[in-house]
């Protein structure tokens, strides 16, 4: 009989948490038992999984007993607060927060790039930052053919990156402005409807914000190349749930756009979207709900003989977070890096 696993979602009521539920069902992840955890605010709520109504529980000391995999998406402080209990309980934590990403003993995985890293885990595996995941999936296949010398990125990031309440806030602000009322920011720092602003993560002394430095440091770790030169400018835009990125790549030799197209048309997790006659290229509305990162506008950089430009859009909640985490869980199972589940535990069954 195929093995199945006891899974907990920490942050089940959030934007990524609810997507995790959907993906576990859609991808038929072998689940023996599913536990939904959130803050005490959500205790008593219910969510639906494969037609079953499941209760949401407040996370607690005993919540991880008899659990094999914890998919955590409840923010860095919650991950830090519960990580040692999760690992002590014998579960593997796949953490969507930035809390452990740069720790030397924590693998940081994009399954299309460095799946082998899953075998090295010591209880925690980090899911990279959303912009980093989307960019890595698109540029790693090119990097394998001619190593990237320098990468310059500009991002156009959706509200979903700031969570479900930020998405609601953009809708409310849009309705308010259309009704002639002021747009009041509560979750986001500034009005986002009909506006955009440079990413508001904490600023570093070198003038880069944390989001930008995540793209630099996480990509280097995932690619296993500490010398990769990367610079990024991250911007929040009034889009609900798909990020866009303009990427300039510099190689040590010319990289023909046609070769890049050939490579990317066969790359896992990538869909080439280019209709030059119709001027139709990846857009956030087309990337929404899609697993693939949409890539297009591949062209020679007219300012540099070894430069290539490309444009991508990817669903921030899906491949940028929940899908990547579920793919990591699938790798754990495929590579036999989890202990087998015991027979289904007491409580509700799914
Ligand atoms: P809750 O809904 O009870 O606040 P998002 O990223 O969309 O904002 O979602 C964040 C998720 O993390 C939600 O499920 C939220 O639960 C959960 N969460 C936030 N703070 C905590 C906490 N201290 N303990 C457990 N879960 C938390």
Structural summary, described in words:
The structure is a single chain. With 350 residues, this protein is α/β, with parallel strands linked by helices. The protein has 2 domains: 3-128 and 321-343, Rossmann fold (3-Layer(aba) Sandwich); 131-316, Dihydrodipicolinate Reductase, domain 2. The protein contains 8 helices and 14 strands. The chain has helices at residues 15-26, 76-88, 130-145, 164-178, 210-223, 257-265, 284-287, 318-334; strands at 5-10, 31-38, 46-49, 52-58, 69-72, 92-95, 124-126, 148-157, 197-198, 229-236, 242-251, 270-272, 293-300, 307-315. The strands form 2 sheets. A 7-stranded mixed sheet has the order 3-4-2-1-5-6-7, with helices on both faces. Strands 9-10-8-11-14-13-12 form a 7-stranded mixed sheet. A hairpin with a 2-residue loop joins strand 3 (46-49) and strand 4. Helix 1 crosses helix 8 (318-334), helix 3 packs across helix 5 (210-223) and helix 3 crosses helix 8 (318-334). The protein is globular, with a radius of gyration of 20 Å. The model is unreliable at 340-350 (pLDDT under 50). Adenosine-2'-5'-diphosphate (A2P) is lined by residues 11-15, 17, 38-39, 41-42, 59, 74-75, 78, 163-165.
Q: Ligands bound here?
A: adenosine-2'-5'-diphosphate
CATH class of the largest domain: Alpha Beta
Biggest sheet record: 7 strands, mixed
**Which fold name is given in CATH as the topology of the largest domain?**
Dihydrodipicolinate Reductase, domain 2
What best-fitting shape do the alpha-carbon axes yield? globular
Strand content: 15-25%
Q: What is the overall pLDDT average?
A: 95
Element-by-element helix/strand order:
EHEEEEHEEHEHEHEEHEHEEH
| Number of helical segments with 4 or more residues | 8
Question: Do you know the CATH architecture of the largest domain?
Answer: 2-Layer Sandwich
Let me know the number of strands. Answer: 14
Number of domains: 2
Strand order of the largest sheet: 3-4-2-1-5-6-7
The end-to-end distance, rounded to whole angstroms, is: 17 Å
Helix content: 25-40%
- Extract low-pLDDT stretches: 340-350
Structural class: alpha/beta
Radius of gyration: 20 Å
Write the CATH homologous superfamily of the largest domain.
Dihydrodipicolinate Reductase, domain 2
């Amino acid at each position: 009989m195929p093995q199945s696993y006891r899974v907990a979602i920490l942050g089940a009521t959030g934007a990524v948490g609810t997507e995790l539920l959907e993906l576990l069902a859609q991808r038929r992840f072998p689940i023996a038992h599913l536990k939904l955890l959130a803050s005490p605010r959500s205790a008593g709520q219910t969510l639906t999984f494969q037609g079953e109504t499941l209760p949401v529980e407040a996370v607690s000391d005993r919540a991880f007993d008899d659990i094999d995999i914890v998919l955590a998406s409840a923010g860095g402080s919650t991950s830090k607060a519960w990580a040692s209990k999760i690992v002590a309980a014998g579960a593997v934590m796949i953490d969507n927060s930035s809390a452990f990403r740069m720790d030397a003993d924590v693998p940081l995985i994009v399954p299309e790039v460095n799946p082998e890293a899953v075998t090295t885990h010591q209880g925690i595996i980090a899911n990279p930052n959303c912009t980093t995941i989307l960019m890595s999936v698109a540029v790693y296949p090119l990097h394998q053919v001619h190593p990237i010398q320098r990468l310059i990125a500009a991002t156009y990031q959706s509200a979903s990156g700031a969570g479900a309440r930020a998405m609601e806030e953009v809708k409310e602000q849009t309705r308010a402005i259309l009704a002639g009322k002021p747009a009041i920011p509560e979750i986001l720092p500034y009005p986002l409807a009909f506006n955009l602003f440079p990413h508001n993560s904490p600023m570093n002394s070198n003038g880069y914000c944390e989001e930008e430095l995540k793209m630099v440091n996480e990509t280097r770790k995932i690619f296993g190349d500490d010398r990769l030169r990367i610079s990024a400018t991250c911007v929040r835009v009034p889009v609900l749930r798909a990020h866009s990125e303009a990427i300039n790549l510099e190689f040590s030799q010319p990289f023909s756009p046609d070769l890049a197209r050939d490579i990317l048309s066969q790359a896992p997790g990538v869909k080439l979207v280019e209709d030059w006659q119709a001027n139709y290229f990846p857009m956030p509305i087309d990337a929404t709900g899609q697993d693939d990162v949409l890539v297009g506008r591949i062209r020679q950089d007219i300012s540099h003989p070894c430069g290539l430009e490309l444009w991508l859009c990817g669903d921030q909640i899906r491949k940028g977070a929940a899908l990547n985490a579920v793919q990591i869980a699938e790798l754990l199972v495929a590579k036999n890096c989890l202990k087998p589940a015991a027979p289904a535990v007491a409580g509700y069954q799914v």
